[in-house]
Write a structure and sequence with these properties.
By secondary structure, this protein is mostly helical. The protein contains nine helices and no strands.
Length: 359
């Protein structure tokens, strides 16, 4: 099987890659110009519909009416979308505010739980002292009695003491929960303010202040949740509005572009010495872009011709290789024929010698 030489393959491949790269570059430039041309066509259509110029209004009235209708539909959905976006923005702000309040509420709640343990610890200590308020002592006696009995058992000897030490260690390990239960017991019996001492008073004052703040935070959180729920109901159709917005925007752009391009192609019918500068600037730029697009198309066609030439060159190179191989085959065959001819001549001489001896 005949193939191209490596050098020829590399050369032709390089040319093809260069042509392909050039075509892609030109196509990108042409697409950008085409998009700008369509954008200017939409501007031209918008300007024409805003103008009371009768000459323009009489050109392509069907396209003009279609654009105005599509534009009105788009403006209507645009207004609804703006309202929905404002609602969603407020909803987002509300959600962020609620999140901050929730974090503040959780933080306050943690501080309250910590204070409950501290107040319970103070109460537990006072309940075990001779100067304790009788009602507090009575309310916390189940906790202090159990702790005291465990301690007394640890003073004994033998297995009983060992088991008591283990139970006491586990009890002390869980003292945070015990102190919290002490606090709850006194709170339920309205005995918290029977506690004495500066530290107890400080803790209780802080706890009272935090409790009031926590209550207000809980009310605020619930109120904001309710308002957010109502706002979420109002924004429930936002996805549908976004879809409608994209649909009507596309319809408006297509209708406006079609109308604007028609005005551009038929500019000779309405452009005159009285035409405004805005129109002239738009049309002049559209002319430049249109010429540039045509130039790009021509250049792409030329590049494709270069690509065709490369294809033909590769075919010629292939054929030349084939000719060279065939010539080599011919030379080999001619050599074989010459050897056979020599062999035949040698055989004829032998025949002649045999005939000579037979005489």
């Amino acid at each position: 099987m005949l193939i191209l030489g490596n050098t020829a393959e590399v050369r032709i491949s390089s040319v093809m890659d260069s042509v392909k790269s050039r075509i892609e570059e030109i196509q990108k430039d042409m697409d950008a110009s085409y998009n700008e041309l369509r954008s200017l066509a939409l501007r031209l259509a918008s300007a024409a519909c805003a103008d009371e110029n009768e000459e323009i209004s009489l050109i392509a009235p069907t396209l003009r009416t279609a654009f105005i209708s599509a534009r009105d539909n788009f403006n209507s959905i645009k207004s609804r979308k703006l309202q929905m976006d404002e609602l969603r923005a407020r909803l987002s702000e509300g959600e962020e505010s609620l999140s901050r309040l929730q974090r503040e509420k959780n933080s306050t709640e943690r501080k309250l739980r910590e204070l409950e343990v501290l107040i319970g610890a103070v109460a537990f200590a006072q309940a075990d002292s001779p100067s304790c308020d009788p009602e507090v002592e009575k309310a916390l006696s189940p906790f202090t009695s159990y702790s005291r009995s465990l301690y007394e058992e640890t003073q004994r000897k033998g297995p009983v003491a060992f088991a008591a030490k283990v139970r006491l260690a586990l009890y002390q390990k869980n003292q945070g929960s015990v102190f919290s239960q002490c606090f709850s017991t006194l709170r339920d019996k309205n005995l918290l303010f029977h506690l004495s001492g500066e530290k107890a008073g400080e803790y209780l004052e802080t706890y009272s202040s935090l409790s009031s703040s926590y209550s207000l935070l809980c009310q605020d959180v619930e109120s904001r949740k309710h308002r957010l729920s109502a706002s979420q109901m109002e924004t429930s159709g936002s996805d549908e509005i976004r879809k409608d917005y994209a649909h009507f925007e596309n319809e408006m752009k297509e209708a406006g572009t079609s109308y604007g391009l028609y005005l551009f192609d038929n500019g000779y019918k309405w452009i005159n010495q009285n035409t405004g500068e805005e129109y002239l600037n738009i049309v002049e730029r559209m002319l430049e872009l249109n010429n540039h697009i045509e130039s790009c198309r021509s250049e792409i066609d030329r590049q494709k011709e270069y690509s065709a030439i490369s294809d033909f060159l590769s075919m010629i190179d292939f054929n030349n290789r084939k000719i060279s191989d065939l010539r080599e085959e011919i030379r080999t065959i001619n050599e074989q024929i010459a050897r056979i001819d020599d062999e035949n001549r040698s055989i004829r001489r032998k025949i002649a010698n045999v005939k000579e001896r037979l005489k």
